[in-house]
What we know:
Structural class of chain A: mainly alpha
Number of strands of chain A: 2
Helix content of chain A: over 70%
Strand order of the largest sheet of chain A: 1-2
Radius of gyration of chain A: 19 Å
Shape of chain A: globular
Number of domains of chain A: 1
Radius of gyration of chain B: 20 Å
Distance between the termini of chain A: 52 Å
Helix content of chain B: over 70%
Number of domains of chain B: 1
Number of helices of chain B: 15
Low-confidence stretches of chain B: 319-331
Largest sheet of chain A: 2 strands, antiparallel
Oligomer: heterotrimer
Structural class of chain B: mainly alpha
Shape of chain B: globular
Strand content of chain B: under 5%
Amino acid sequence: MESLFLQQVLNGLIVGSVYCLIAIGLTMIFGVMRISNFAHGDFSMLGAYFAIYFVLFLSGWAGWAGSLVVAAVGVGLIGFFVERFLFRPLLTRWTDIDIIMLSIGLFIVLENGARLLFGATPKMIPDPFESKTINLLFFSTSEIRLICLLFSGIAIFLLQLFLTKTRTGVAIRATSQNRNAAALMGINISFIYSLTFVVGSALAGLGGVLYGTIFAVFPMMGAMPTLKAFAVTILGGMGNIRGAIFGGFILGVAETLGGNYISMQYKNAIGFVIIILVLLVIPQGLFGGREKK
Amino acid sequence: MNRRPVKLILIILGILIALALPFIIRDRYFQHLLVLSGIFIILTSSWNLLAGYTGLLNLGHAAFFGIGGYSSALFVLKLNLSPWIGLPLGGIVASIFGILLGIPSFRLSGPYLAITTIGFSEILRLVAMNWVSLTRGSLGLYGIPPLTPFNFSPNFSIKFVSEQNAYYVILVFVFLTLILLNKLIHSEFGISLKSMREDELGSQSIGIDTSRYKLTVFMISAFLAGFAGSFYAHYVRLISPEMLALSETFSILTMVMVGGLGTLFGPVVGAILLTFLSEGLRFFEDFVKIDIRFVIYGGLLMATILFMRNGIIGLFKGVGTSNEKQREVNE
Amino acid sequence: MILLQAMSLTKRFGGLIAVKDVNFVLQSGEILGLIGPNGAGKTTLVNLITGYYAPNAGAILYREKKISGLKPHAINNMGIARTFQIVRIFHKLSVLDNVRSGLVDRRTRPPWKVALDSLVKNRETQVTGRFGEERAIQLLEFVGLTAYRHELAENLPYAYCKRLEIARALATAPKILLLDEPSAGLNPKEQNDQIGMIKSINGQGITILIIEHVMKVIMDISHRIMVLHYGEKIAEGTPEQIYKNEKVVEAYLGGEASAHH
Lengths: 293, 331, 261
């Protein structure tokens, strides 16, 4: 196949865009609330399952589009309750370690709970375009994957608009930089916390639908995206959204190219190797640096 | 001095019961669970040393367990060494990997360290799965020789294949481990670790070389975990890359949190409790035909963090006063 | 005799120059006060001396040996101890254990040896045993915290935490003690007590460098005072000289924090 390299780069970008969505959610939550949520990828998993069941009602591309909405809303709602009743009580009381452990507990419950509810066999989110391929100049890909890439791009763009142009968005960024000052300025921190967690989780849910469209849906699918989202956020600097975007695409491309040219079996390790190498040299991540001790 | 004698009595009682247990309850499956508990006590105690006493969150601990198991098994299978030599060898190999993991901990903390340690163990698990020529990949290693018997005479030898005999061996190692950890913790080394846990920069200001202390404690912790892994390998005699899985680390974590992080007996209580609970749940699962074991595990972890942060031991200790103050108050 | 010496010391953070070409000496046995408006670089200077930062230019000599660039623990082991502007005590350890931790001999033993000794040596001979307890209580008596010795450090009121940090620093048997705003948040009576304590520490032969905003304290106890402003040393001299120094007055009144008397 000609231009295999460019083809792989495109594949990498597509996968990377999904990583971006999930990672942005994670980094937002960390930036604003200092919560490292190891169950974040499971929100993606839940989003994917929302999609699986929604398209049973509504098929075709309307169903696919609708499932995105349902996933975002559904997971956002779940996120609201998780934040309110699980993480919020801990925020003042305990340490970093406790929050990580709590999220690990949540991860275990969600993953195995999903196995109970949905069964372990992988399912597919049906391709509304029926695997139609598009042939562009140097590469070809399926239409649905291109739509995924487009969707991610638009979602990221809209999010950036929200964060920079709206009052609430700016409030979120302000809280992420300096909680106390933000509170003194009259920002309702409680509301911001809830909103950030909901938006972050909803993004994970959306990412899950896309991930499930490109790959497959199964209860254990949350683990890898979680770890990769962490890889991306560390690469880009935890709390740094632009960094997460950058990092997401880098990871996607590096993984795809690495998988093809180096070794398919160790493909998933690439993310980890990157993290470890980056952190050894720059402990705050590539764009980080706000870490005050 | 009210508390001290009580504690001493409990310990002596515990030792006596531990020694007599296989004769009281002769069920082989029960004894098997006891052996597993013993292995996990060593494993959880080693993790507790890092997380509870030094404040280093190592989410890749299962890697040490697995490295110990694989190393010992391979040394014995390929080089015909005695499994008794394999035990400490597994610990030493794991200890070397402990250095690898210790180095990132110099500058990383919290989620950054957590993720790095996960990455470390995942990479090693992938290696175990894919380096088929060495590890046989997902098939794992089987037919691992058990601990070689003590042959006293042609008629009288002690074998270590049975659960009961294996239990007494692991019991000895558990005692040794606890004694070792007790000495370390209540010593100048221990107080240095705790200082690092509380405030790293502050501890540096009183002369603590945090990097080298972290390295040292990683090596000790990894050795113990590797030792436990080696014993496991020669006891169940079949190991797979799943030994290095994240779920294994999460089990360790849950056991320590439920028992009591940062205490000597927390991991002991947690390991025994959850090993038996896990098996009990397995029967329950067969009964109700629902796979709820892990959901309960996860729920237990969450509930502990939210409601019982200091674990079971913590419930007994009382919050807000140090041990010595309690002693004085009771005087 | 000159105990500590800084030469052309400079520290940059990105584009910001926190300490610029600072020279000073610390004479054995004296109390040197370090003052200056907020952001003048005082704590940065202490961080440079104690090894938390490495200078971009210049050097620091302790007893003629270069210490700039060494790590904090090494510098403490050579005989320089410090307290922090925002206390860094060990919260979940008892007050007694906080001090005991400082008593541990780390000067002559690397960590692995400390671990080995922990296993081999009798507990009584260690700092965590009887011997350590007596010495630690002595130090606690000195700072007036004996009654709280079994209390968890996190339960102490803030002013006592500062005293605890001083006791812990003294436990490392330093020749030089660097105090970073020890009087912050203290009421006038507590300030007086602290002046007495610091003079007493100095009386035992420990050289002191003290950063302070509370003028009453620093004017009272310092033998000499050094003034920093925007990272540069703008004045140096006895308390009277500094009090009357025009540049100093202007630095304080012409902008940032006002000195209160």
